[in-house]
Design a protein that fits this description.
311 residues, 4% strand
Length: 311
């Protein structure tokens, strides 16, 4: 009875569902272990705060996955434009009402719950769906530079411009991802080169204007990170988090220190978020932590490619 209910509810590719379950288990174990110290300091000794938060978000995510799984895929074609407009509106709301975390305003808090989400994550998905829909719609007119600029580059530019002031790396990633989608969608390569050049010039001009208009900006952060990345002798103090992450990886070795035995979680300020992979390697090692997780993502990628080819 139970097996029949599960099979009926979670229809589709069993490998993908198995990977979803694997990622959920990994995330619960890793978030709880890496967040104990932070939760104890920040939430009055409540060491399970992030565990409860992660569990609730996983339950909500699973509900969304199941609902989306049952929706006819053609509905995304019809709603692509609306989704893009809504995501742009959420990005604007983030500027006005967003929560400031680690000197950046990237999060929007859900009223009455205390939970927050990054609006740029919604914008990524909305933009990909919009580009796919529009490429399909104008497939025979992609040699028209003005049309491509109007229906593809302007929306991409707006979304990236709304994300860039607080999160340059995400904006660059979304722009690069959009260029790849347009390349696969048969937009002429010479157009893409022109758009990339315009984007580089736009970022430089934006940074210049930002430094003149206000002192409260992240341009100096961008500059320091670029200099540290390309410098042969990076500043140890400026690269504190990266250095602590490297220590976690090196001390984890092949087999790790065992779950809950991390020491670098007490040193890494973002041990339960940005640098959680380093804590996974420290506790589970390369053989039980890093390699299986990377393989799982690779399997998910190839299953997605297989499903897309069949469609």
């Amino acid at each position: 009875m139970q097996q029949g209910w599960l099979t009926k509810t979670f229809k589709g590719d069993r490998a993908v569902w198995g990977l979803v379950a694997l990622f959920m288990v990994y995330s619960l174990l890793a978030v709880y272990s890496s967040s104990v110290s932070i939760a104890f300091r920040s939430y009055g000794g409540d060491t399970s705060y992030f565990l409860r938060s992660q569990l609730l978000m996983l339950i909500l995510s699973l509900i969304i996955i199941v609902v989306v799984h049952y929706l006819p895929y053609r509905i995304y074609f019809a709603l692509a434009g609306v989704m893009l407009i809504v995501s742009a509106g959420l990005l604007i709301l983030t500027f006005i009402f967003g929560a400031r975390v680690n000197e950046a305003t990237r999060w929007l808090v859900i009223p009455g719950t205390g939970f927050r989400f990054q609006t740029s994550d919604i914008a990524k998905v909305a933009l990909i769906i919009y580009l796919a829909r529009t490429l399909s719609k104008y497939q025979n007119e992609l040699n028209n530079f003005m049309l491509v600029t109007k229906y593809f580059i302007v929306p991409v530019g707006i979304i990236c411009a709304l994300i860039m002031p607080e999160n340059l790396s995400t904006a660059v990633m979304i722009f690069g991802m959009s260029m790849i989608i347009l390349f696969i969608g048969r937009v002429p390569f010479k157009f893409l080169i022109a758009y990339i050049g315009l984007a580089v010039a736009g970022v430089m001009l934006f940074a210049l204007v930002l430094t003149v208009v206000t002192k409260d900006n992240r341009v100096e952060v961008w500059k320091n990170r670029i200099e540290n990345y390309f410098s042969g002798n990076p500043d140890p103090d400026g690269d504190y988090q990266a250095n602590q992450a490297k220590i976690a990886i090196s001390t984890g070795g092949l087999f790790g220190k065992a779950p809950g035995r991390s020491t670098q979680r007490n040193m890494l300020p973002q041990s339960n978020s940005d640098f959680i992979f380093a804590i996974i390697i420290e506790e589970y090692g390369l053989l039980l932590g890093a390699i299986p997780l990377i393989l799982a993502y690779m399997i998910l990628l190839f299953r997605g490619i297989t499903i897309a080819r069949k469609c």
